[in-house]
Amino acid sequence: MPRSARSRPARSSARTSCRTATRSSRSSPPDCTRTGTRSSGTSSASAASATRTRCRSSAAWWGEALLEPTRLYTSPLLDLIEQHPGAVHSLSHVTGGGIAANLARVLPVGSWVEVERSTWQPLPVFRVLADLAGTPIEDTEGTWNLGIGMFAVVSGAAADEVIATLGAAGLPAWTVGSVSTGARDLTGFEQGAKGVDGGAVRLVGSYAG
């Protein structure tokens, strides 16, 4: 959520923006030296990496990338909520289940958002894992977070301030899409998840880099 790469997909009838907080240094240009699978899909990553042990992702060896501890967001997010009362509508930690499902479950029923892939560059370790598995990186979105550690659904009016606050706390953040409540065909969207009736989410476009 810092130096934001702003993307505005569909126009929203509800003035709400969707932000992401991530461990990687992504703002405008991504910092491709950062690695780490965070807490999403680590067992799958370990299984994939067993096929090759000397694969190098950016500046980190496999072992370093897979063993890097996950980032804890509790303190900075509690501070964010305190500093911006009413601005944060919901939060979603992107762990098992991937990107769309984790965001969909914290959105209201009847709402939808298109997450723009072009707003960030997946960490190098995920591209290497996808290559090892022989699959397009888009096919891993339902398992790994691809560098997004947390989604924050916030008021559109407070979006820039939220991004600045998170950046000051060392959490890079940016806009990935805008939440809408307008009627539309939701074919291809992930709708709700993990036993929760929520909103609808799909990823669109191509990843940066």
Q: Care to describe what's here?
A:
There is one protein chain. The protein has a 4-stranded antiparallel beta sheet with strand order 4-6-1-7, with helices on one face. It has helices spanning 42-49, 62-67, 74-83, 98-104, 124-133, 159-168; strands spanning 16-21, 56-57, 60-61, 88-93, 112-116, 150-155, 173-179, 190-193, 196-204. Residues 1-15, 22-36 and 40-59 have low confidence and may be disordered. It has 209 residues and is an alpha+beta fold. The two termini are 19 Å apart.
**Biggest sheet layout:** 4 strands, antiparallel
Output the radius of gyration. Answer: 16 Å
Write down the secondary-structure element order.
Answer: EHEEHHEHEHEHEEE
Low-confidence stretches: 1-15, 22-36, 40-59
Task: Count the E strands.
Answer: 9
| Class per helix and strand makeup | alpha+beta
**Total count of helical runs of at least 4 residues:** 6
Mean pLDDT: 77
The gross shape turns out to be: globular
Instruction: Tell me what portion of residues adopts beta-strand conformation.
Output: 15-25%
Q: Roughly how much helix do the residues carry, as a percent range?
A: 10-25%
- Spatial strand order of the main sheet: 4-6-1-7
Separation, N- and C-terminal Cα atoms: 19 Å
